[in-house]
Write a structure and sequence with these properties.
Number of helices: 13
CATH superfamily of the largest domain: P-loop containing nucleotide triphosphate hydrolases
Order of helices and strands: HHEHEHHHHEHEEHHEHEHEH
Distance between the termini: 56 Å
CATH class of the largest domain: Alpha Beta
Number of strands: 8
Strand content: 5-15%
Number of domains: 3
Strand order of the largest sheet: 4-5-3-6-7-8
Bound molecules: guanosine-5'-diphosphate
Oligomer: single chain
Length: 373
């Protein structure tokens, strides 16, 4: 069914995240529940299956594709007796590994502490119980309180540090003058860095892993004598931890202050429509949903229309069964004609793309410098 297909694709993504974090996935478990079990997220029977597998294969870590409540995490840890990682933790971990500048590191650290704070409660009581032993009393409430105070102090310190850098960055942005600002946005791994490289002929790190880009890169690009600023920012992802959205506020300011967004989509990805929705949702959260957008459908070289299914011929044809040309037409109509289909890798249709960006930037430029045009 469709929901099963979705579940598989969500787990594909989770596996890719795990791989990006340096892990190797041994087995996947899925379960259909009306809503997550409030105590253990998954049901009792499924938990027994997982526990048996963990024990048999000496699994070190079990990852859940959602954010677990502190209580759930504690309960599951007790049942499975291995490291329990949820989606938020995994994403934070990848961000921590990839943060290059001190600003990005500070932002990630803040997000990590905010994630940790509500989880400090009873963390030690649980360890104590696992160790067992008479007279082995873990740290009491006072020590937990001390830990929480240390974390809270750290959080307010990091917030102050970020505030200072935010001010500096705002000044820097202010100093860039009236140049038109274009921001690349899109789901993670869609080809934003590759596009940035091709447009600005620079060498931005591009690789087939999630979140290769953490910090914002801003480059001056000139097309046909028209200069503008192009920024590449952190990739968006489904269920991006809210702590990250908050702490990357300033990075996302680049998007918020842009005059034009290039929303890059990987059309070779089976979930690309979900990706568009996730990106739009985050744009909405950072109050940038009503900005002018050019939809850039990338990776047309890798696009594979699904084969016709005999049975499907009886039903209405779904998007997946369109040929690339038919499919382009439907999306051009949907996005008011403001879309382009390219391959950043092979440079297919790249000149048309550059021309389109030029036209859009020029429209804005003309309103800003009416006498020079
Ligand atoms: P970002 O995370 O959005 O910045 O994506 P990257 O620019 O790092 O690209 C992610 C992966 O997609 C890399 O392995 C790129 O080589 C690959 N890629 C980018 N553009 C294309 C394209 O047009 N076609 C194909 N097949 N792969 C592409």
């Amino acid at each position: 069914s469709q929901s099963e297909e979705k579940m598989i694709e969500y787990l594909d993504e989770l596996e890719f995240l795990a791989y990006t974090a340096g892990g190797q996935v041994l087995k996947r478990f899925t379960q259909k529940l009306e809503k997550p079990n409030p105590k253990t997220f998954i049901g009792t029977g499924k938990m027994e299956d997982v526990a048996a597998y963990v024990e048999q294969h000496e699994v070190g870590t079990v990852i859940f594709d959602d954010e677990l409540t502190p209580a759930q995490q504690k309960n599951i840890e007790r049942l499975l007796r291995c490291k329990i990682v949820d989606r938020t933790y995994l994403i934070l971990d990848i961000f921590a590994q990839r943060a290059q500048t001190s600003y990005a590191r500070t932002q990630v650290e803040l997000a990590q502490y905010e994630y940790l704070l509500p989880r400090l409660v009873g963390l030690w009581t649980h360890l104590e119980r696992q160790r067992g032993g008479i007279g082995m009393r873990g740290p009491g409430e006072t020590e937990i309180e001390t830990d929480r105070r240390i974390v809270r102090d750290r959080i307010s310190l990091l917030k102050k540090k970020i505030l200072t850098i935010d001010k500096q960055m705002a000044t820097q942005r202010g100093n860039r003058g009236a140049l038109v600002r274009v921001a690349l946005v899109g789901y993670t791994n869609v080809g934003k860095s590759t596009l940035m490289n091709t447009l600005s002929k620079s060498e931005v790190f591009a690789e087939n892993k999630l979140f290769a880009t953490l910090d914002t890169t801003v480059r001056k690009v000139v097309i046909g004598n028209l200069p503008f600023l192009l920024s590449d920012t952190v990739g968006f992802i489904r269920k991006l931890p809210t702590q990250l959205v908050d702490s990357f506020k300033s990075t996302l300011d680049e998007v918020r202050e842009a005059d034009l967004l290039l929303h890059v989509v990987d059309i070779s990805h089976p979930q690309f429509e979900d990706h568009i929705a996730s990106v739009n949702q985050i744009l909405d959260e950072i109050k940038s949903a009503d900005k002018p957008v050019l939809m850039v459908f990338n990776k047309i070289d890798a696009y594979q229309p699904e084969a016709y299914d005999e049975e499907d011929l009886m039903i209405e044809r779904t998007m997946a069964h369109y040929s690339l040309d038919e499919w382009k037409q439907t999306w051009m109509a949907r996005t008011n004609g403001d879309s382009i289909f390219i391959s950043a890798l092979n440079k297919d249709n790249f000149e048309t793309f550059r021309k389109k960006v030029y036209e859009r930037v020029r429209e804005i430029h003309v309103t800003r410098f009416p006498y020079n045009s």
